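Two proteins follow. First one:
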Amino acid sequence: MITGIIGHRGAGKSSFLKRLEGYYVEVKLSDRAKFMDLDAEIAARTQKSIEEIFAAGETKFREIEAAVFHEIYFEYKTSNQDLYIALGAGFSFSLPEDIEIWWLRRETDSFGRIFLDRPRLDSNVTPLEEYQSRFVEREERFRKLAHRQITVGEGWDRANEFEKILIGLKPADLDASITVQPWIFENEWRRNLFFARLLQMGVRYFELRDDLLNEAHIREAAARIPSEKVLISFRKKNTASTLLEFSGPYATDWALELGPSPLSHNAIISLHERKRGETVDEAAKRLLSHKAEHHKLALHIRDLTELWVGHRFYLDNRLARSFLPMSESGRWKWYRLTQRPHLNFAREGDGINDQPLIFDFLRYPRRYETFAAVLGLPVEQSRTPAEQSEFFSRYSMG
């Protein structure tokens, strides 16, 4: 099997490749796999530096890049060894259909990055403008090509136990739910990988939302997942009666903003929108007036005072209530990570800003007596949060 690793400039593909090789050594599988950086192979096979090749123009570099990749591909296509190869962000050749594609992501990809040690692609603009001018096109291309997304935390560019779980070398008990996104259904390979590896991670529920997925995709996903891990969420007005009937054997989440639930049994009733002038406390009471096994309050929360009101709602009955605060900026991610309500959601990449990444869930202590808070404006590209996380984890602090 050949696996291509793609991602934006500076996402850390080369260092990820080195860590991946180290993980294989740890589990004594290094003889079964080969690890290559395409740029390094280009330099070795042409006996020229990347800068020297780029001096002849980007077009010439892309021609050589494609030729070297396909040379390597045919060398390993029938090999007994697996090959992991990291590609440059701007590769323009078509990838063979029989290789698996991993998209390595960071949440800061869209911010832009400036490099002092790499060739310039367009000297007529600033380095940041150069990055941004290519970002959208590359983002869409990576999304179409990828069979799996791996979003790693900022600053975690050294070996860690959490990546081993992300890449499938270790099982886990994530104990969080995942909202299944539409892109999963674009090809069979992607579907098979997604459900198999997330089941290995110990996902609590696979949420199948009727406003994101059509009924055919919901039925297909439900057939692939153990029935106790299926959660069908109703968020769309005028839901098809066939889907309501189909949901009978599974856990369901009815959004109260659609009106009273038509289901005979409600596993979960949730509230995502307040009425005009309604307080958090009033919204919570309105939610509780509808009978269900579990009540989920997932409102936009403006400040710490409102957060405290929602938190009290949760504390009154932790087993039967979940409070999932939302914001435009993702400022309540820490709350979801520290409180871990029964119904909690993680994401791989795209999703609600306040949902922690799977990587965050894996790295955060499951049991702790207290947690540390660093106050101030977030410096999201800093290495410091990762270093602080490692330091405080030694004292069982989140």
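Second one, unrelated to the first:
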Amino acid sequence: MAGESKAVFLSYASEDSEAAARIAEALKTAGIEVWFDKSELRGGDAWDRSIRQHIHDCRLFVPVISAQTDARPEGYFRREWKLAVDRTHDMSERVAFLVPVVIDDTSDARTDVPDRFREVQWTRLPGGETPPAFVARIQKLISGESGATASPRPITAPKKRSLLIPGVVAAIVLVGIAAYLLIEKPWTTKSTTFAPPAHSVAVLPFVNMSGDKEQEYFSDGLTEELLNSLAEISELQVAARTSAFSFKGTNTDIGTIAHKLNVAAVLEGSVRRSGNTVRITAQLINADTGFHLWSHTYDRDLGDVLKLETEIATAVAGALKVSLLGEEATKVELGGTHTAAAFDAYLRGRKAHYAAHGYKDYQTAIAAYTDAIGLDPNYALAYANRSVSLEYSEDEASGPEVRQMYEHAQADARKAIALTPNLAEGHWALALYYMDGALDFTQANDELERA
């Protein structure tokens, strides 16, 4: 540990500042030093040095997790999280350092956080309301009473030696060893407690069996679409995409994956594509026993892929004994297409957007979405995604071109919403336009809330 610091570092998204302030105030009232200063949360070298120093010196790191942090793939708080996780690599496993706090109903199985956060107990403080029990726990962690190694007591030599004492000590030690062997039985394998949520699943990247690496975008894109489809089921907890995709190509066994992601079941499969036909094999595996809960092979024309996703999602939900409402099944196809070539172009656009490193890459994504729209003029998801790619690419544009791109992005977002009023991606795209193109943060907030 760094020095004798007893400070607590609160890491939070700017949208959660009020809740974080409540937590900080409760800790400070109890005499706990808290690093919580909004005025210092700026970018730049000075900020970076300050952040690194505080994280290096603090006794406990408290990440404030919420729907706000989950909705933001980028942010200063994510840099803080990474620095905190990096510090744990030099710590003993017995040292308590990470104390994740959730301020709303965000699920720990689905939210986008570092895997190291999932290895420790989470505390739920709705709205940042901090009960005395949590404050007392923090005090114990800081003092080393819980989660840290106690300091050894000094040994004082006896004034007189006795020949009897060594024999007594030896006898006590032997009895202790015998008791340990009889009770603990270290030669047997002990099972660790594994109690994931009953209705939880991780969707692993489907394996591309097409024999063509260029088709990887299709199997990855189909996996993401299926993952999103399952996430629409309100009673089902789905592991985050980032967590599930981290096992791609690792050949990690199902049991290990399930334990790391804390899920009761794992869905895996393969995709074999030939022209406009596709064979999808999917299998749902019980994480505890390793046995199949359900498996099926689908041979379909690409034009039926979106209906196929609904079919698989419903089957998985049934295998997990989740009640799937009929209305939720229709959400799976929201904003989609039944045109095979349009769906293919859409997946190419998604692949290019998420792998983009600059203006040219975003233009590649925009061109693919344009192809999808040309093949299906009512493809709402393609309009929404093209709008977002246009927003991202304007950073490297200049002059009149910037205004044209903003107007085009706005038109695409509105078209997506006109085609599918309840499409979250459409409202998200329009929110981006209001934030960057119109600088109308009130409207942007309204659209984000709607999304």
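SUMMARY FIELD: DSSP finds 18 helices and eleven strands in the chain. The longest strand covers residues 265-274.
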